[in-house]
Structures are given as structure tokens and as C-alpha cells.
Design a protein that fits this description.
This protein is an alpha/beta fold and about 425 residues long. Helices cover about 45% and strands about 15% of the residues.
């Protein structure tokens, strides 16, 4: 008879787990018959011992099947994108409405912040009234009528992952390749997707610091997703500095809106177009890059974003007046360069942790996020700055919090020779 003690004992010994054992464990996570302590032991066992390729597929499918699996009957491809997490990465807010404007349907099930990286749902919580946890009829209605809806996983969608996701954040097992793969794909496959693109981050601001680790995760996720019948590819992208010039929830909504309304381009725009084009290609739609560019340039993507916000409880006319709805921090302070020179290095993880310390992320599960805090106008690697010029601006609730953040930021930004610039998209895995 399968039980949690036996599964964890076999994991500890490095013995392969069967499909039935993994399915039983996922069911126990979902229905509560597996305790938090047993779930934590499982997560640590997987982190230390790993799963076989077949075991990873079996865990992913078991977690998918632990709850409701959606299906769609829509006049266009059902697509999605997911990122492994970075700093200043708000591409989801650009890609979902742009894909909708290209004729796709995007039921995007997103998550909250993990560690030093921000979560898409936390960003959307900064918009007054926006429902990140609608019931399924409303979710389906917005997807069908608008073309996209960015929401959290309901209690019925991959409930085993909801338990394991929380355990990973507090047990130091976030970086497990097997658990990342199963967590991401179980929710995505439960959303009933026809095709998927994954953005696997690598660099100082990512969970994965080396190209080797990123390539291993990319290969595992592509093989698992394709094996489950969902056409999937990965773009491996650089995260050696923030993607957008802003970190923090309201500030990243502002950054995304600037791209959607044509006020700003840069890396956030470039990567959004590249990922959207890849998703369309996986659905058999050619010339996706041009289609994504036209969707943004025409204002159609911004219009879809506004319709999504309104459809999910947010204010009408958000796109036309978004700054009016975004909360502003009482303390805004420029961090000025102490010397002249070229920015050579940015510790993205340190910047992310500075935002968490300001209240823009969670140090424990019960922490409440302050949507207004964060960093803006972040300088980029390779920029020449003069002494006294701003490196970025801190948005804080209190002056003493800004003082602590400033010390962290100064240590995270170094001057010197930045070396040869690396491309934003480092590799593709399919």
C-alpha cells in the first residue's frame, strides 16, 4: 500500500518512484491527506535526489490531473507564455493582450512572487478592483470575449501544485529542476492549451545562474510538455539586469503600459515581441513578429488590455488614465552615482531582494505586499554616468526603508568595463 512515509523513504534512498506512487502523492497533496511536513520532505527529497525523465512527466501529469482540466471551443488557437522568473519582468502584461489582438486566446494562469522575483498576480493586484481569482464562468467569459485573461489558479486547477508551490517557497527548494517543471506545466496543461512558449531566465537576477542549468531545465520542460501533447518551445533569455527599468508591482504595471501605449520600447518590448512570435509559431501561425509589432503599434493590444481589466472588475478607461489609478509611494529618492564611469555589473537578485525588503515582495507566506514600493528608472549595463547622476529611484513607504535599500543598491551596481554585450535571447530549445 502506498503511503507518504514510504514514498519519501524511497526518494531518500534514490529509488525511482512509480507513476502510481506519484499520482497517489499528488492526490494526497490535493485532498490534504499528505501533511505539510510530508510535503516538505517530498520537496526536499526531489530537490536532493531528483526524478527520472519518466518520473518528471508522471509527476507533472499527476499534478495536472489532481483537479479540473479545462477544455476550450474557440475560433482561434489557445496559447500561453510562462517565465521562470526574473526582476523587472512584466512581459505577461504585454504578451497576453498582444496575442489576443493577433487572434489567439490566452487563458493565462499566473503565480505570485517567489523569492526575489515578482509575481504577475501581485502586479495586477495593484490595479483597483482587478480580480485575480474570478470564478470559472467569468474567466471563460473574459477569455472568449476579450481574447485574454490573466488570473491565478483556482482551487480546482492543479490543487496539488498549490500546496507544493507554497512549500517550495519556505523550504529552500524553489530551484529544483523537477519541481519547477512540474509546477509550471501542471497549471499550464490544466488550462487546456494548444501551444506554449516558455521563457527560461539565466543570469544574476534569475533563479538559474548558469547557461548549463537553464539549458537542462529548458530541455526537461520542452520534452515533458511535448510528451503531454502541448506544442512547446523555450527561449533562454538573459537576466543579468532588470528587463524593464522598474521593479515593484505598480511600477511594473506602469512599465508595461508604457510599452503597450507606444511610449517606450527597449528590452521589455523586444522580448515581448519575440516570445509572442514564438507562441504563434508553435500554433502554426507564421510571421508572428510582424503581427505582434502591429498589434502594439496600432493600439489594439492596449485596447485588449483595457477590456481585460474592465472585464475582471477593474476601472473602465484604465488604458487612457492608468497613472491616475496607480498608487504612488510617499518617499521617492534618487540614488546618485558616487563616481563617473560605465555601469559594468548589476546584481539583479540583490535589487529584487531590496524590493522585497521595501515591502514589495514576501519574506514569509503571510506577508502583505505594498504595491507602491519598488525601484524605477534603473540604469542599464553599459551606460556612461557622471558623478551625481541618478542610477535609479527608490519608491518607499518610509525614509528609513529607503536608507536600507540605498545601501543594498550601491553594493549591487559596479563600475568598470562591461565587456562584450550579450544578446537578450541566448538560445532556443524545441
Amino acid at each position: 500500500m502506498t503511503d507518504a512515509r514510504g514514498v519519501n523513504a524511497r526518494l531518500r534512498k534514490g529509488e525511482p518512484l512509480s507513476e502510481d506512487e506519484l499520482r497517489w502523492f499528488a492526490k494526497g497533496l490535493a485532498d490534504g491527506s499528505v501533511s505539510d511536513a510530508q510535503a516538505g520532505a517530498f520537496a526536499m527529497g526531489v530537490c536532493l535526489r531528483g526524478l527520472s525523465d519518466a518520473g518528471r512527466v508522471a509527476l507533472t501529469l499527476a499534478m495536472r490531473d489532481s483537479g479540473h482540466v479545462m477544455s476550450w471551443d474557440l475560433p482561434g488557437p489557445v496559447l500561453d507564455k510562462h517565465s521562470t522568473g526574473g526582476v523587472g519582468d512584466c512581459t505577461s502584461l504585454v504578451i497576453a493582450p498582444a496575442l489576443a489582438a493577433c487572434g489567439a486566446y490566452v487563458p493565462m494562469i499566473s503565480g505570485r512572487g517567489l523569492g526575489h522575483t515578482g509575481g504577475t498576480l501581485d502586479k495586477l493586484d495593484a490595479i483597483p478592483g482587478y480580480l485575480t481569482a474570478p470564478d470559472e464562468p467569468l474567466f471563460r467569459k473574459v477569455v472568449a470575449e476579450v481574447g485574454c485573461a490573466i488570473v491565478g489558479a483556482s482551487a480546482e486547477i492543479a490543487p496539488a501544485d498549490k500546496r507544493l508551490y507554497a512549500v517550495r517557497d519556505v523550504t529552500g527548494t524553489v530551484e529544483s529542476l523537477d519541481l519547477i517543471c512540474a509546477s509550471i506545466l501542471s497549471k499550464k496543461l490544466a488550462a487546456g492549451l494548444g501551444a506554449l512558449v516558455l521563457d527560461v531566465k539565466v543570469g544574476t537576477g534569475a533563479f538559474l545562474k548558469t547557461a548549463e542549468d537553464a539549458k537542462a531545465l529548458s530541455r526537461a520542460m520542452v520534452d515533458t510538455a511535448n510528451g503531454a501533447g502541448c506544442k512547446t518551445s523555450v527561449l533562454m533569455t538573459g537576466m543579468d539586469e532588470p528587463l524593464a527599468p522598474a521593479l515593484g508591482n505598480a511600477l511594473e504595471v506602469d512599465a508595461a503600459m508604457r510599452v503597450l501605449t507606444g511610449l517606450e520600447d527597449g528590452p521589455l518590448y523586444d522580448l515581448s515581441v519575440a516570445l509572442g512570435a514564438e507562441a504563434l509559431a508553435n500554433a502554426g501561425i507564421p510571421d508572428g513578429g510582424r503581427k505582434m509589432e502591429e498589434a502594439i503599434a496600432s493600439g489594439a493590444a492596449a485596447e485588449r488590455f483595457g477590456q481585460m481589466v474592465y472585464g475582471l472588475g477593474g476601472p473602465i478607461g484604465f488604458v487612457e488614465n492608468w497613472r491616475r489609478y496607480m498608487p504612488e509611494a510617499p518617499v521617492i529618492r534618487a540614488v546618485e552615482a558616487g563616481q563617473s564611469g560605465t555601469v559594468a555589473h548589476i546584481d539583479g537578485e540583490a535589487l529584487g531582494l531590496a524590493v522585497v525588503a521595501l515591502g514589495g515582495g514576501r519574506q514569509v507566506e503571510t506577508d502583505q505586499i505594498n504595491p507602491m514600493v519598488g525601484l524605477s528608472d534603473v540604469v542599464r549595463i553599459g551606460t556612461e554616468v557622471a558623478r551625481g547622476e541618478p542610477l535609479l529611484r527608490i519608491h518607499a513607504a518610509r525614509a528609513e526603508q529607503a536608507d536600507i535599500a540605498e545601501a543594498t543598491i550601491r553594493a549591487a551596481i559596479r563600475f568598470g568595463d562591461p565587456g562584450k554585450a550579450t544578446p537578450l535571447v541566448r538560445d532556443r530549445v524545441a
